[in-house]
Amino acid sequence: MEWYDDYNIDVELIDSQHQELVKMITRLQDALSSGALNAEIATVLKFLVEYTRKHFKDEEKVMAAIGFAELENHKNLHGRLIEEVKNILLDLKKGKPIHAYELIDFLTNWLMNHIRHEDKKIGRAIEKFKNENSEWDGSFP
Ligand SMILES: [Fe+2]
Q: What is the DSSP string of 5-33?
């Protein structure tokens, strides 16, 4: 997966985590295309899940801090992704063959669409929040 600057939502914390996620998906892609064993792929995928969980928590903290109106809906989208990836991990554990192309395609498309359509809204809401709260120092509790 490649990073494009138009994925930036102009929130440093979130943008740097998104870039890290892109790197991790690329790492997974490399593991899959080099014919890594299921156990190795599971390790990379678990790492990706852990990082994604942390990222989602941070993103949700940012949304809560500015009173983002679509917080609950956005949280649900995050929760659904985690569930789907957990199911993929379960399949791996059971020894089911992995469809590498579909997995990478799924993760890449999910992240790309999510950033472009959902996370961008956070960026815009923060911009608005900044304008309406001139005393705000830009940090998130
Ligand atoms: Fe998000």
A: GGG--S-HHHHHHHHHHHHHHHHHHHHHH
Q: Find the 14 Cα to ligand 1 centroid distance in Å.
A: 9
**Domains, the chain:** 12-132 (1.20.120.50)
pLDDT 10s digits, 10-52: 999 999 999 999 999 999 999 888 988 888 888 888 999 999 9
29: number of Cβ within 10 Å: 18
Q: How far is the CA of 119 from the centre of ligand 1 (A)?
A: 5
Ligand 1 centre and the CA of 59: distance in Å?
6
Q: How far is the CA of 34 from the centre of ligand 1 (A)?
A: 30
133 Cα to the center of ligand 1, angstroms: 23
Residue 18 neighbours by CB distance under 10 Å: 21
Ramachandran region, residue 82 (left: φ > 0; alpha: ψ -120 to 50; beta: rest): alpha
